[in-house]
Amino acid sequence: MTKKKNGFFTFICSLIPGAGEMYLGFMKEGVSIMSLTFLLFGFAVSINIEPVLSLLPIIWFYSFFNVHNKACLSDEEFYALEDHYLFHLDQLISDGRFSGRQRTVFGWILILLGICIIWKSTISGFLAALRIFISSEVANMIERTIYMVPQYLISLLLIMCGIRLIQNKKKELDENY
Length: 177
Known about the structure:
With 177 residues, this protein is an all-alpha fold. The protein contains 9 helices and no strands. The two termini are 43 Å apart.
């Protein structure tokens, strides 16, 4: 695959998720990890869902140790490694196109994310007008509740997806027996 690299630069690059894999020559894997890191961070900050940020250290540790495990392989083992995307998106999307169901799910996810992103700016104008008619304590309570709606929606969506995955796995296991 590629030539093994300098240990010092491997360590320095491994401090940034995905950069170490890219330095070692695993571009697809490095781009996957780096994209996942920045997308999760951007998602958590823009939607204001701090628990998502707890996934970032997991990704960082995975990337850090993955780089050092690859760097410590023997030459034969290292050269035998193949570069793959982290989530094998090429297998999920056959022929480079979404199926009807995949397109629908992806479309709804994009719509939900778009609504969540514009939520705060839209609500702030509404709340400014509302403050004329109600006390500031009540307006603050309404503001906190309304700002949390995207968090509730995404949390419910994640719970529903998790339940669906568990149900499908249970059906699959029941069919095998």
